[in-house]
Amino acid sequence: MNTTTRRTLIACLLTAGFAAAGCQNLGGSSSGTSKVEGGKGTFDAGKTVPSDAQRVAQSSHTKLIHRAQRPENVWVEDGTTKTVIYSGPVRSDSNVVVDPEANVVAVNDITVKHAGKLDPNHTYRLYFKGR
Q: Exposure winner among 45, 68, 71, 88, fewest CB in 10 A?
């Protein structure tokens, strides 16, 4: 089984598992716009990271995981291309995961990035700003 087929199979199994467990997707579309927290905020990918946002994590060639300490807005930036690939609000104690190998950006195990492909050879950065 090749790597792409294995990743697709894993993603399908995870999605089916979340659906079976009663998890719901809190929004999103193929346009790169995602809603989280029941639609309380919508942020579009492609915007820039605010100058007063704090970089809290960076990773190259590996999964990036960060736990929000308080309600915040998050920006995930492809540091190689200098583009924001996802941004949106998160609750206190939310886990934000960027997994380029699986092509996933997730908040609390719910995929929130639906457009574009993550490149495992790029550097990814997480920025947070309190609300």
A: 71
